[in-house]
Amino acid sequence: GNSVTQMEGPVTLSEEAFLTINCTYTATGYPSLFWYVQYPGEGLQLLLKATKADDKGSNKGFEATYRKETTSFHLEKGSVQVSDSAVYFCALIKAAGNKLTFGGGTRVLVKP
Amino acid sequence: DTAVSQTPKYLVTQMGNDKSIKCEQNLGHDTMYWYKQDSKKFLKIMFSYNNKELIINETVPNRFSPKSPDKAHLNLHINSLELGDSAVYFCASKDPNTDTQYFGPGTRLTVL
After folding, report:
1. Using CA atoms, how far apart are residues A89 and A34, in angstroms rounded to an integer?
2. 10 Å Cβ neighbour count for A39?
3. Chain B partners of A89 at a C-beta cutoff of 8 Å?
4. pLDDT tens for chain A, residues 1 to 112
5. Cβ distance of A104 and B105 shorter than 8 Å
6. B59 Cβ partners below 8 Å, 6+ apart?
7. What is the rounded distance in angstroms from the CA atom of residue B19 to the CA atom of residue B71?
8. Cα A87 to the chain's mean position, in Å?
9. Is the CB of A98 inside 8 Å of chain B's CB atoms?
10. Using CB atoms within 10 A of its CB, is residue B70 exposed (0-12), middle (13-18) or buried (19+)?
């Protein structure tokens, strides 16, 4: 079956530090890949996505590139802010599928 | 304006009671979901409906029963509540054009 593995947190950083959250997946075919973010006390919201190999998703200074050869979709941000403190979820969905498979989530805490 | 809404936001109840959580989306999506998020932020899909028909039913105790009166609503009824049901429950709907899921703000259920 499909699965998503992401690094366990918490990840604690200082403001303006570089952030990387690793995500690897197992799936047949060509899934779409997503990063969702959950701010404290809120629901999940889409951060970025990529639908095919070598696509780069980007939003709010975050980027992730769909790497089929390494089955990875690592999330990066060059300079984090305190407001980036949240839980980040990597996820995939098979083409024409209905079920989103989530990783376990990575909590990020950015300190001033 | 709220795309996916849930009520109530907080629910505190005694073991053995029966409770319902309501979800409504105004995005015009056909597919809706219920997820359970535990205290470690792990997300587990419970059910999915497409245009009022059940399409995903994960391994969930039959004390949980979803009901979709129309494609804009997906409610979750829980019978005989147990301590282990304490969690945050999220409703979501899916855009069929992008596979992006839109989440509600969550309902925090506490069973005492």
Report:
1. 8
2. 13
3. 43
4. 889 999 888 999 999 999 999 999 999 888 999 999 999 989 999 999 999 999 999 999 999 999 999 999 999 999 999 999 999 999 999 877 788 999 999 999 999 9
5. no
6. none
7. 21
8. 10
9. yes
10. exposed
